[in-house]
Specification:
By secondary structure, the chain is of the alpha+beta class. It contains twelve helices and 21 strands. It folds into two domains: 243 residues, 3-Layer(bba) Sandwich (FAD/NAD(P)-binding domain), CATH 3.50.50; 152 residues, Helicase, Ruva Protein, domain 3, CATH 1.10.8.50. 32% of the residues lie in helices and 24% in strands. A six-stranded antiparallel beta barrel has the order 13-16-15-14-17-18.
Length: 411
């Protein structure tokens, strides 16, 4: 029986501790907060999008950074294994739109409660308010950890570093794992906030704050190069845009923002219609209200909040009677609705980031065990690694898969 120390009581830390304990190890888990799973509590807007019930190919297509590194971890503990794990512990699950998996109760607290109960069942010793200050090694092997404001060293046979990244720092994700890894000689790749809202230059977005658009298509271009395209839901904020398609887009545009390239966001407000079909639709709408002013003619076509902005951008006189709008003006309106163009200025910071992009270089970690290649008996799991995926439960699955593999690999 080995003495295993786990640093971090988030998703990956809790699962790694449970699996190591199930395998007969004596496990101590150190959490700097007063409770476990603080970040897990706010995931999925408090509902906890546990994983995604997609097929294998889809899963790996959603992983943005280093998907091949995850093959072994995922094959050892895939999305179906995650669902079985929680249901076996007594947590009923449901699958929603986009194959997103949630607890039936819609409460992330139930997920944390189930994990906490299993930690107790497996006799894992959980230490709250216990911030790890340093990790000590001897002769290339893990030796012990030292807690902040505590002279005592905790010796162990293995350590699992599950400290998360830099996203949502209020939950305790302050990059401790990167510091520990760096001191052991590991390379930390460039770090960025990812899956974050996007800031826009156009001042009129403030008028659209709170407007949610479903079934729209966005494309993002850097010069003439299209770097992202997706279909789904978007939300206007006081500074720009958020929502599922925007969060996914944010993880693709970081390299271009760093190069100071101009990035254009195009929103197709009616992707189900070709320009010709949209023109025919507008003609029908105009015919029904031909004696009305242009400003009163778009109620059937666009959300109320968007109408004033589109009228201004169209440069058609809002007082003009619909029956005197020219074909050229109408085709300009079609073009505007199919290509609402906005300028991206920056991304939001870590306080709004779902995940951190970047982390411990995966070439320095054994993909078959999650053990450091530089220091024996040190394991890295979850967001501390240079692994990230799009929204939809994929990032939590990375946490579960890497944690299970590490917990299973400790001898």
């Amino acid at each position: 029986m080995s003495k295993v120390l786990v640093i971090g009581g988030g998703a990956s830390g809790m699962l790694a501790a449970i699996v190591a304990a199930r395998n007969g190890h004596n496990v101590d888990l150190f959490e700097k907060n007063e409770k476990l799973g603080k970040k897990l509590y706010i995931t999925g807007k408090g509902r906890c999008n546990l994983t995604n019930a997609c097929d294998l190919d889809t899963f790996f297509n959603q992983v943005v950074s280093n998907p091949k590194f995850l093959y072994s971890a995922f094959y050892n503990f895939n999305n179906q294994d995650t669902m079985d794990f929680f249901e076996d512990l007594g947590l009923p699950l449901k699958v929603e739109r986009g194959n997103r998996v949630f607890p039936k109760s819609d409460k992330s607290s139930d997920v944390i409660g189930i994990l906490k109960r299993e930690l107790e069942n497996q006799k894992v010793n959980v230490h709250y308010h216990s911030e790890v200050e340093s990790i000590h090694t001897r002769d290339g092997h893990f030796h012990s950890i030292k807690l902040k404001n505590n002279p005592q060293e905790w010796a162990g046979d293995a350590v699992v570093i599950a400290t998360g990244g830099l996203s949502y720092p209020t939950t305790g994700s302050t990059g401790d794992g990167y510091t520990f890894a760096k001191k052991m000689g590991h390379t930390i790749t460039d770090l960025y906030p990812s899956l974050v809202p996007i800031h826009l230059r156009e001042s009129y977005v403030k008028e659209l704050m709170g407007l949610s658009l479903r079934n729209i298509e966005i494309t993002i271009n850097a010069g003439k190069k299209q770097i992202f395209r997706d279909f789904g839901e978007l939300l206007f904020t006081h500074f720009g845009v958020s929502g599922p398609v925007i969060l996914s887009a944010s993880s693709h545009i970081i390299p271009y923002l760093n190069k100071k390239q101009e990035l254009i966001l195009n929103i197709d407000l009616k992707p189900a219609l070709t320009p010709e079909q949209l023109d025919a639709r507008i003609l029908r709408d105009f015919e029904a209200v031909k004696n009305k002013q242009f400003k009163n003619s778009l109620d059937q076509l666009l959300p109320k909040k968007l109408i004033d902005v589109i009228i201004r951008l169209s440069e058609i006189d809002p007082e003009k009677k619909v029956n005197s709008i020219t074909k050229q003006e109408r085709l300009g309106l079609v073009e505007l609705i199919k290509h609402l163009q906005l300028h991206i200025t920056k991304l939001s910071g870590y306080n709004q980031a779902v995940i951190t992009k970047g982390g411990i270089h995966v070439k320095e970690v054994n993909p078959y065990t999650m053990e450091s290649k530089l220091v024996k008996n040190v394991y890295f799991v979850g967001e501390v690694l240079n692994l990230d995926a799009l929204t939809g439960g994929y990032n939590l699955q990375i946490a579960w898969s890497t944690a299970f593999l590490a917990g299973s690999s400790i001898t």
